[in-house]
Structures are given as structure tokens and as C-alpha cells.
């Protein structure tokens, strides 16, 4: 489902060159639920952004669902991303001018065959799942940290994507809510066959997945 | 050191009234290191913002270091905050146009008797403590999530404040780096007598403090 071959990612600032990903070769099968762990700064978010086609590698290729996406043009890439991927960002990236409900509906805004009322209904169901029905009309700056995280989660699952990329989805949640979130992901994986890649610093959460991939200094170490 | 009496905080949106803090009476002694735990959305950040004089309660009074701060004017409040408090925000609030080093130096910019070179030296020491010496010239948007969190931590400790308010300071850190951060806080508490209030979702971290205060739905429950 996700195949990374010889992926390199180098960042350059005026003074420092950082090899964020170094010859990464990684395969994730359709329907797998894997966790990615490693020290702060070792390349996990960079890896997820490249898998999610939000950033391009300095070298190497990616294929998603058997398609050589590294060669796609912007429009084709955006289309593919919208149909196939759900992304939970480490810093949420909610739209401050939109209400919680509108934020969650966003992925379905561009999808053919989904009416306004269908979109609203699915957004409300997604918010119900993360316990935020009472916050639909709030704006992101009126929410707690963990509530923002949960809106990001609801937005990532609403489109029933085939692949979910979750960057530390429980970092700002208490253990009870964290369990509910991991269970949402486990269910999507079990009942819908959703392929899930979850970055986490939480060993307990990682142990609930099928495979843990460990990174250190831009390279896979296990 | 920190005394909250009958604190109330009510938020109102167009449709919903939220009693974020409900008759909170809380005392924290000089030199204490307490943890605050509770479900996502139960009022922890609101509590810390009020303790840190960043937000005013709807009702009730606060006294910090024996002074009735709720009655201070803006200028006096800002002065008191800058001298006595160090704040680690749940969403970091780094300044995007400033380098990491300049971000960390900020609290000392307004302090009399601290030269530019003294400020630079102390900022580098603080960054050294959180393992970010190699990122001094980076800008916040060139950092990983956990690196941003660590810059926020360095900025909070550089001024040797008497009180540190830490809102989930290890949420985006791996266990090794998280341990280093809690050890920095434990040392400040033990050797400098710094009063520390730390919100955390991590039971393991909370157990390293002297007292755990639990909140639920805006009220203290233990
Ligand atoms: N500006 C605001 N306007 C309206 N409601 C608000 C505002 N800020 C916070 N709230 C609400 O007040 C409640 C408490 O928020 P707070 O940020 O203190 O929670 P928290 O305990 O820190 O949660 P978390 O663990 O998720 O960070 C939440 O239900 C939130 O939706
Ligand atoms: N735009 C950028 N410019 C320069 N360096 C960058 C940029 N983005 C990331 N980096 C660097 O690349 C490295 C990897 O960053 P990444 O965000 O992938 O780490 P991470 O494993 O997700 O860390 P964390 O657990 O703290 O979130 C870091 O050392 C970071 O400083
Ligand atoms: Mg990251
Ligand atoms: Mg909070």
C-alpha cells in the first residue's frame, strides 16, 4: 500500500544541513496498522509528510496503492490525497476562521456526490465519536488543546480514507480519551481495513498496533 | 505562594456557556512541586492561565507571593509576571519571526542589569539543557514538534523565575527527552526552591511531583 524506496530528505538552513531522512526503505501493506517511534527530531513527522504527499523527498520514490505518486503533477496529487488519505497533524492545523463543524466537513467539500446535509450528518457522527458534539459551533481558539486534537482526528476520519497518517494523535489527551481514540483507529483498521501509520511517543499505544518501526537520526533501526 | 479563592471562570460563545472553573479554592506553598491532572477540557489550562495572570477570573481572587494580584493594573501585572513567572504553554507560542536563540532570550530583554552578552550566554545554557544547541539559528517553523516544545521550556527557565507554570511540558517528547525535562524541573525545585505547577496527562510524570491535584468539569476532586 505504501512503498518508500531510498527516500532521502535534506533540509538546509543558512548554517546547518540536516539529513532528516537517510536512505529509508519501507513497505507498509494494505490493511496494516503500524506505529512509528523514535526520539524527538529523528524524522518521524518528515516521514509522515512524505508518505502523505505533503512534502517531496530530496531523492527516492514513493508508491501509494501501487501508483508511482512521486511523478504526479500537483493537481493529480491533490486529488489522490483528498480521496485516499486522512491526516492527523502533530500541530492540528485547524482553520481558525471556521467553526469546529466546518473544519470537520472540509475533506468532503471537494467530493462529488456528497450533499450538504450528508456532509453535515457525517461531520456530526465523527464529532460524536471523539466526544465533541457539544463543541460544534465553537471556533478552534475557544477549545482546549486536547479538544483541538480531537477535531483534527474527526476531520481525518470523516472521508473514510483508505490510509490514515496520524502524527502523535494522543499527545494532548488524558488516558481515558486516549484509549477512545486508539480504539477508533483500531476499529477502522479491523472493520474497514484502513491502513494506518501512527507516530507516537507512547509505548503503551504503540503496543496496540501490529508492528512498531523505530527510527533514530533519520534511519530505520529495527 | 499561590492562593486561589473562590475562583470562577465562565466562557460564553453565541450558543454555549461553559463553566470552565467552578468555585476553585487552592493553595500552593512556596517551593512546592505539584501536578494537575484531569480529562481533556476540564479546565487545567484555564487554571494555569489564571494563576499566571494571563487571564482574569470571572469571580474570585488570587494572591501570588502574598500580593493581591487580582487588583493590579496592567503595567504592574506585566512587570510582576516578567519577574516572577516562567510559563510553558500547551501550544508553545513561539515567535515565528525570531530565531530559537532570540525566542529564548525574550524574557531577559526587559530585565534591568542584564547585558546582551549575559542574555546570550544564559540562552545558550538553557538550550544546552534541553539538547537544542545545534538549533540556535533555526526558526520555529524549521523545528520538529518536540523541538518547539523544548524551546518553550528553555524560554520559561532562562529568567530563573520563582514560579514555573508548565502546561503539559512533555506531551510531544519521547520518554528519554521527557525524563530529561522532568529532571530539569525537579532540579530547579530542589536546588533553587522554584515553585512548580505542572499540568500533565502522564501519570508517570505526575508521580514524580510532591502532590497531585485532580480536576473534573472545572472543579477540584481530591
Ligand atoms: N475562549 C474560550 N471560549 C469558550 N470556551 C472556552 C474557551 N477556552 C476554553 N474553553 C472551554 O473551557 C473548557 C476548559 O478548557 P481548558 O483549555 O482549560 O481545558 P484543559 O483541561 O486544559 O483541556 P486539555 O487537557 O484538552 O488541554 C473546555 O471545555 C473549552 O472548550
Ligand atoms: N523546514 C525545516 N528546515 C530545517 N530543518 C528542519 C525543517 N523541518 C524539520 N527540520 C529538522 O529535521 C529533523 C526532523 O524533524 P521531524 O519534524 O521529522 O522530527 P520528529 O521525529 O517528528 O520529532 P518530534 O518527535 O519532536 O515531533 C529535526 O531535527 C528538525 O529540526
Ligand atoms: Mg514530529
Ligand atoms: Mg489544556
From TrEMBL, chains A, B:
<keyword id="KW-0547">Nucleotide-binding</keyword>
<dbReference type="GO" id="GO:0005524">
    <property type="term" value="F:ATP binding"/>
</dbReference>
<keyword id="KW-0813">Transport</keyword>
<dbReference type="InterPro" id="IPR003593">
    <property type="entry name" value="AAA+_ATPase"/>
</dbReference>
<dbReference type="InterPro" id="IPR017911">
    <property type="entry name" value="MacB-like_ATP-bd"/>
</dbReference>
<dbReference type="InterPro" id="IPR017871">
    <property type="entry name" value="ABC_transporter-like_CS"/>
</dbReference>
<dbReference type="InterPro" id="IPR003439">
    <property type="entry name" value="ABC_transporter-like_ATP-bd"/>
</dbReference>
<feature type="domain" description="ABC transporter">
    <location>
        <begin position="2"/>
        <end position="221"/>
    </location>
</feature>
<dbReference type="Pfam" id="PF00005">
    <property type="entry name" value="ABC_tran"/>
</dbReference>
<comment type="similarity">
    <text>Belongs to the ABC transporter superfamily.</text>
</comment>
<keyword id="KW-1278">Translocase</keyword>
<dbReference type="InterPro" id="IPR027417">
    <property type="entry name" value="P-loop_NTPase"/>
</dbReference>
<protein>
    <submittedName>
        <fullName>ABC transporter ATP-binding protein</fullName>
    </submittedName>
</protein>
<keyword id="KW-0067">ATP-binding</keyword>
Amino acid at each position: 500500500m505504501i512503498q518508500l524506496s531510498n527516500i532521502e530528505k535534506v533540509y538546509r538552513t543558512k548554517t546547518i544541513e540536516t539529513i532528516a531522512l537517510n536512505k529509508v526503505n519501507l513497505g507498509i501493506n494494505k490493511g496494516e496498522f503500524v506505529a512509528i517511534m523514535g526520539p524527538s527530531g529523528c524524522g518521524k513527522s518528515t516521514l509522515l509528510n512524505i508518505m502523505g504527499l505533503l512534502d517531496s523527498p530530496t531523492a527516492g520514490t514513493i508508491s501509494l496503492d501501487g501508483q508511482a505518486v512521486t511523478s504526479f503533477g500537483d493537481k493529480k496529487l491533490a486529488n489522490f490525497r483528498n480521496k485516499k488519505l486522512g491526516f492527523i497533524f502533530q500541530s492540528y492545523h485547524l482553520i481558525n476562521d471556521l467553526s469546529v463543524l466546518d473544519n470537520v466537513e472540509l475533506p468532503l467539500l471537494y467530493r462529488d456526490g456528497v450533499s450538504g446535509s450528508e456532509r453535515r450528518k457525517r461531520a456530526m457522527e465523527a464529532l460524536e465519536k471523539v466526544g465533541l458534539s457539544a463543541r460544534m459551533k465553537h471556533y478552534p481558539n475557544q477549545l482546549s488543546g486536547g479538544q483541538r486534537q480531537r477535531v483534527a482526528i474527526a476531520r481525518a476520519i470523516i472521508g473514510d480514507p483508505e490510509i490514515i497518517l496520524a502524527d502523535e494523535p494522543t499527545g494532548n489527551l488524558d488516558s481515558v480519551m486516549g484509549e477512545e481514540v486508539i480504539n477508533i483507529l483500531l476499529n477502522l483498521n479491523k472493520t474497514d481495513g484502513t491502513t494506518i501509520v501512527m507516530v507516537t511517543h507512547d509505548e503503551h499505544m504503540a503496543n496496540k498496533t501490529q508492528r512498531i518501526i523505530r527510527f533514530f537520526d533519520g534511519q530505520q533501526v529495527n
